[in-house]
Amino acid sequence: MAFWISAAAGAAKAMWRGDGATVERKLAPDGKVYFSYADIASAVSSAVPRVKAFGPDVIVAIGGGGFIPARMLRTECAVPILAVSLELYDDATKTARDTVELKQWFDEGSGFGKLVRGRRVLIVDEVDDTRTTLQYAVEELRRRNAPAAVAVLVVHNKRKPKRGAVPQDVTYIACEHVADHWNCYPWDAAAYGHAIGEHEALARACAGECRKFPGAAFAVVGAIVGAALAARLKN
């Protein structure tokens, strides 16, 4: 188990923990890193043994990035899903707010909400960037719903100092540890001006799947994206 340690407010904090793989990917020409649906499914699947070891009674997916990873996880772990909506990033400015905004929480009195109080809960999100959202989710879950045990799972943990903190009694599962770049996920393809096929091509290039032809990967992607844009302009 590896730890990055930094000083924050005079105290040492664990920057990341968990035994997920450390993954290095190439940057796309726009300076971002793209991930495909297959990349996400593979990363989530790699964490299933750790999830089963924790033994959650229910998953709480943080929307919107945690929804699809949680659904993938449900297939392999057969655990029901609840949804909450928390926002830290402003979609318009692509920057982080000072505080997390609570948009939606689940009803504990009905359905799967009854599986939370006094039970084992797994919180799922797509990326651990500043850790602020995860900290908020854990604190709010404990304050509102008093679970017996809490774990968090993220598809990607960014290797960087964190603003927030997850308590040591919370099981932390990172499917993969990645560099501190802007991650583009397939469910957000349209937000970056790409059709899903274009996005997936960029993801393959970032994964280095054209190793036999150095420098060719992004040239191929550029041709695909350029052709798609030309077709759109004609229409």
UniProtKB/TrEMBL annotation:
CDD domains named among the record's database cross-references: PRTases_typeI (cd06223)
GO molecular function, one term: glycosyltransferase activity
Keywords (A to Z) from UniProt: Glycosyltransferase, Transferase
Domain of life: Eukaryota
TM annotation in the entry: none
Domain Phosphoribosyltransferase: 53-171
PANTHER family linked to this entry: HYPOXANTHINE PHOSPHORIBOSYLTRANSFERASE, HYPOXANTHINE-GUANINE PHOSPHORIBOSYLTRANSFERASE
Protein name: Hypoxanthine-guanine phosphoribosyltransferase
Species assigned in the record: Aureococcus anophagefferens (Harmful bloom alga)
Lineage: Eukaryota, Sar, Stramenopiles, Ochrophyta, Pelagophyceae
